């Protein structure tokens, strides 16, 4: 997996996808978007990958869209703009819907589309110095493609404020609002990410994938008989699976499960 604007490396069952445009604060353009989409789709198909870390080189996590790319988009026709915007939307969807849990390693500021990358991830750990900003309105734009993910993370009330004011907010505020899960000192970031990925990889791979899908499928649904029946079917299917039977057996027999050896 060789890319011009990303670095992808593997350690045990963890893939780390690193934005590698530190000279422009890891702002993304059409190439970055295409590479991120391709990387996450490829990782989705790999059985040896159980968790994905989304990281960035340099002092910033992601400044959003590259200004030169945005300047070029201003000359596009309406149809060309729709096609281009859809590629960005598909990239965010690829990150959000990848079957493996995505851990965002937020080592610096995340602005505009960078907040979208954070919100599309499943688990977010940020350094205490990181700042966040939904800055689109400053440029006369709107945070449309990232909105489904950011609103799920921030909630409607906070989204109304920060989408319209474009105010920056600090890591402590991001933690309070639910955009990030943990805030740590810079020298503790890798240790914390390592502990989280180790916890993910210690669990049943199928169970982790199905748990992620469960949350996405159940969130926001009406608690009715259809949903109750759906959840009953899901647990029944997992109980009867090879992994489910092995997990229960290993617990009762006080031994490590088979997946721990792979």
How does this structure look, described?
The protein is an alpha/beta fold and 262 residues long. It contains eleven helices and nine strands. The chain has helices spanning 30-44, 67-73, 78-97, 113-120, 147-154, 156-165, 171-177, 189-202, 205-218, 225-239, 242-252; strands spanning 6-11, 14-19, 51-56, 102-106, 110-111, 123-127, 131-133, 168-170, 182-184. It has a six-stranded mixed beta sheet with strand order 1-2-3-4-6-9, sandwiched between helices. Strands 5-7-8 form a three-stranded mixed beta sheet. A hairpin with a 2-residue loop joins β1 and β2 (14-19). The radius of gyration is 19 Å and the shape is globular.
